[in-house]
């Protein structure tokens, strides 16, 4: 079984602009970034298990939330920017398709930048199982009869700050004011056998 949550305890938050708290009573109950005054600020959903299984949920989570925030910052301007999880599983922290942590991914993006899927498409292999880091993995271009090569002048994206957010009120504020967040869930035996109703984990696993 793949372990898909591997956090580096040496990674520390980088917070420059603490978020001002808005009382929950002042936040719309049904707020959804996918429909804000008939505008969708969310990028498309992707399947990490195509073309084959890859434990890259951490890379998809990190790039998806950040892509959404880019779309929010660009006021939903076309075209969408969909950041590349392939860059993370080939070049970034963690064990590629064997697991990683979205928080660590944001530190890596802050330090190294990341490209989008227009020049680094998802292949479902990472640095631990077949596709290591290279200039072409970060961004490549191809032409008929000329093959492919590293695209040196690629568009790159980064994050200026990153951190953790805990507690229902804080998470709601973060989403409402800034955009989608990443999260992880501990899949215990009880959750594996879940069939319905309200599930409460008693194991304390994180």
Give an account of the 3D structure.
This protein has 206 residues and is mainly α. It has one domain (34-192): Cysteine proteinases (Cathepsin B, Chain A, Alpha-Beta Complex), CATH 3.90.70.10. Helix content is 26%, strand content 4%. The chain is built from six helices and two strands. Helix 1 crosses helix 3. The radius of gyration is 18 Å and the shape is globular.
Quick gist of this model?
This protein has 206 residues and is mostly helical. The protein has six helices and two strands; from the N terminus they run ααααββαα. It has a single domain (34-192), classed as Cysteine proteinases (Cathepsin B, Chain A), CATH 3.90.70.
Q: Work out the strand percent.
A: under 5%
The percent of residues in helical segments reads 25-40%
Overall radius of gyration: 18 Å
How many domain regions?
1
Q: Order of helices and strands, N to C?
A: HHHHEEHH
- Low-pLDDT ranges: none
> Between the first and last Cα atoms, what is the distance in angstroms?
17 Å
Give the strand order, joined by hyphens, for the main sheet. Answer: 1-2
What descriptive keywords fit this protein?
single chain; 206 residues; mainly alpha; Cathepsin B, Chain A; 2 strands; globular
Topology of this structure?
Elements lengths: L56 H17 L11 H7 L10 H11 L22 H4 L1 E4 L3 E4 L17 H10 L11 H4 L14
Antiparallel strand pairs: 1-2
Helix pairs in contact: 1-2, 1-3
């Amino acid at each position: 079984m793949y372990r898909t949550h591997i956090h580096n305890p040496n990674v520390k938050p980088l917070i420059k602009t603490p978020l001002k708290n808005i009382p929950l009573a002042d936040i719309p109950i049904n707020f959804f970034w996918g429909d804000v005054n008939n505008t969708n600020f969310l990028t498309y959903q992707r399947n990490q298990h195509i073309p084959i299984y890859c434990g890259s949920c951490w890379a998809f989570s990190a790039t998806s939330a950040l892509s959404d925030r880019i779309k929010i910052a660009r006021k939903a301007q076309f075209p969408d920017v969909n950041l590349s999880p392939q860059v993370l599983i080939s070049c970034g922290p963690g064990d590629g398709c064997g697991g990683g942590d979205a928080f660590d991914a944001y530190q890596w993006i802050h330090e190294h930048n990341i490209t989008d899927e227009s020049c680094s498409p998802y292949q479902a292999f990472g640095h631990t199982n077949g596709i290591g880091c290279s200039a072409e993995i970060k961004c490549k271009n191809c032409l008929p009869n000329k093959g492919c090569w590293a695209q040196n002048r690629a568009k790159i994206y980064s994050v200026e700050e990153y951190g953790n957010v805990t507690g229902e009120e804080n998470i709601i504020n973060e989403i409402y004011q800034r955009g989608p967040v990443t999260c992880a869930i501990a899949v215990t035996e009880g959750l594996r056998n879940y069939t319905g109703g309200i599930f409460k984990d008693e194991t304390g696993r994180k």
